[in-house]
Amino acid sequence: MSKKALIEKKNELITRAEGIVNTAEAEKRELTEDEAAEIAEIRDDVRKVKAKLGLLDDIDEMSREKCGDAKKRDEGEAAPATDDDTAKAEERAFEAELRGMWNEMNERTDNTPLTKGANGSVIPVTIAKRIIRKLYDISPILEKSTKYDVKGTLAIPYYSEDETNNINVAFQGAEFSKLSANSGKFTSINLTGFVAGALALVSRSLINNVDFDLVGYVVDQMAYSIKRFIEGVLINGSGTISGQTGTVEGLTGVTLAVNAAAATAVTADELIQLHDKVKDMFQDGAVWIMSPATRTACRQLKDKMGRYMLQDDISLPFGTSLLGKPVFVSDNMPEMAQGNAAIYYGNLAGLATKFSENMEIRVLREKYADQHADGVIAWFEFDAKVQDAQQIAKLVMGSGTPESE
Hints:
Layout: H1 3-26, H2 33-67, H3 69-74, H4 83-105, H5 123-126, H6 141-144, E1 146-148, E2 154-160, E3 185-191, E4 194-203, H7 204-208, H8 214-236, E5 256-259, H9 268-277, E6 287-290, H10 292-299, E7 310-312, E8 320-322, E9 325-329, E10 341-346, E11 351-364, E12 373-386, E13 392-396
């Protein structure tokens, strides 16, 4: 088949595909399965035609080199534009426009695997430029904590007073009598560093078969997953870390506590007690942290005047307030069950987080070349402890049953 015939066939295929897309767009609907399958078939046919055209172009190039045309171009003489060159440029622009329309019409709302695998046969049809991912509620604990970006061990001085260690202030008494000298004592809160990392492999076959920045998406998803991981450790602590000494304490170091009577319910009075555990000077910037289910339970509580405790406030993050303070939810928070710290309240600046190694996400292209994949890797080192116990309080669930039961 001549080059002209191939170009005509290619244009005819593209016109068919465009007609299918335009019909669906005019009817304000998505493509049917049959239409999507037909476009996929057309796309394969177009690729085959383009491959044949490419072969003919290679043959033409070799012929020109034999005739000395390549030498002229090397010396600076530009090759004259041909009708075929102009046609190819127009075809490429036309295909780009069609590809954009086709991708827009075929955006899907399912999760897309990051390896080609058994789904390779449907990749040209199902993968669009937008991936719908499962989202999790993440609270601003990390953002609102006091962050230290330092190397090595960080010692934070902590000044404490008690009945035996305080600064005495008293009347002098008799003239020339001495004052009793005493003072509080300094201790320190030490933050070290615990190394964590993440690695993801992305199939090169999948990368080559989609029309969007898949590696960029994986990098973004990895950053999101790391944020979830860090928030989970800040709330629940790390527990024993294999191969490393010590643990990340996070909010498990909170000492101010209100003990709820029930294991699976809270009362308005308990929330008020928890609020007032934090001194007034730290109330500015204080927030509530709880699970979605706990927030639902709080939403149903009423004060003695019959007013709901939890109020909608579109001016606040997450859109709700409790006793005038924003309510944040996190899927990492424990649910209401005996012994669980189901609610935290206070100024999260009382939590210190230290990053010894700034998180950096890198794409490894050569390391996994023999697997026909790209690697996306991230390492970071951090630690977290409560640095001011006065600023944060927790509600610990009891062992009783709710009054209504």
